[in-house]
Amino acid sequence: QAQLVESGGGLVQPGGSLRLSCAASGFTFSTFSRYAMSWYRQAPGKEREFVARITDAGGNTNYADSVKGRFTISRDNAKRTVYLQMTSLKPEDTAVYYCNARLFPLNYWGQGTQVTVSS
């Protein structure tokens, strides 16, 4: 049974940093490395939105305009883990952050981790 578990969320002041992790289980190394991995977020009262994506081999990344230059997505296929390094955090980054693994037609979501940016 494939499963994604996010961690690393918490309360941080504006301008601060956090690193989120997404640990995948139920995947073999060769299988996990074929998945495109993404981070999404959902703020209260808003739709879930795309944040960042990294391709299977990790060679290509893309970001939402709102986080470009501040967030960095990376992956360690040997550890079956994806990271989201977040810097220069703003109050508008406050949301539940979700990890997503996609390899058509398979699509998995984690349970989310709360990030709150507030002074």
Describe the structure.
This protein is mostly beta strands and 119 residues long. It contains 1 helix and 11 strands. The strands form 2 sheets. Strands 2, 4, 5, 6, 9, 10 and 11 form a 7-stranded mixed sheet that branches. A 4-stranded antiparallel sheet has the order 1-3-8-7, with no helix packed on it. A hairpin with a 4-residue loop joins strand 7 and strand 8.
Give the SSE map.
Blueprint: E1 3-7, E2 10-12, E3 18-25, H1 29-32, E4 36-42, E5 49-54, E6 61-63, E7 71-76, E8 81-86, E9 95-103, E10 106-109, E11 113-117
Parallel strand pairs: 2-11
Antiparallel strand pairs: 1-3, 3-8, 4-5, 4-9, 5-6, 7-8, 9-10, 9-11
In sequence order, what are the helices and strands, one letter per element?
EEEHEEEEEEEE
Distance between the termini: 40 Å
Approximate strand percentage: over 45%
Oligomer kind: single chain
Radius of gyration: 14 Å
Structure classification:
mainly beta
Tell me, briefly, the overall form. globular
Uncertain stretches? none
Number of strands: 11
Helical percentage: under 10%
Mean pLDDT: 94
> Helix segment count?
1
Largest sheet: 7 strands, mixed
